[in-house]
Amino acid sequence: MATYRAELHVHTVLSPCAGVEMIPPVIVEMALAKGINLIAITDHNVTANIGAVMKAAKGTGLTVLPGMELQTEEEVHVLCLFDTLEQAEAWQRIVDSRFGKIPNDVEFFGEQFVVDETGDFIRREPRLLITNVDISLEEAADRVNALGGLIIPAHVERRAYGLMAMLEFAPPIFEAMEISKHVSVAEACKRFPELLAFPLLQSGDVHFPDGFIGVMEFEMRVPMISEIRKAIHGEGGRSMRIVPGN
After folding, report:
1. What is the tally of helices (H) and strands (E) in the chain?
2. pLDDT the model gives residue 246
């Protein structure tokens, strides 16, 4: 087994709420500086910058998983994590088929840049990315699992886009839940006792270079979705833990 310090919720400059500094080389540099060797790129409803971050991380020892932070029709954010760019792109095609066509208001929401592995500008994403996609939580879970991915509700205790605040219950279709960096496990479970029934992960929901917290540690053989799933469930000697103060 190996130890992976992870940050599974990282935005790039493609997310309008992220800093313009969140380009691939900076993401890789800051993750490594925090001792993190496993990240997932999870921009809002899109995957276009993942390949660039994967290229920037090549040869550094940092594993980059393709992902997405989907905003469902219930206005809940869920992390959709995959092993390969091909899986993520297949998921993107499903999302695109159910995506609205509201143009981005740069002055109000911010820029949405697609960049290359050096951070150089390629194009602007014209659609507003922070919007609901016409996919339910249940359908998202079914489809992501069918593609071989893993789906985890994000920052579940938050009032904005958090599962518990929006639904006021925790559907048993999920294998784990993510809490935000603003609460401890004890605080989150005190507010929402239903969370005691789920394995809990924590992330920095990284929007700026100083946002990496790297408090998740996984003991597993390789940094793959199947191993993360086993670690979540404590199977075959795999495990995960939140190590505050990393």
Report:
1. 8, 11
2. 58
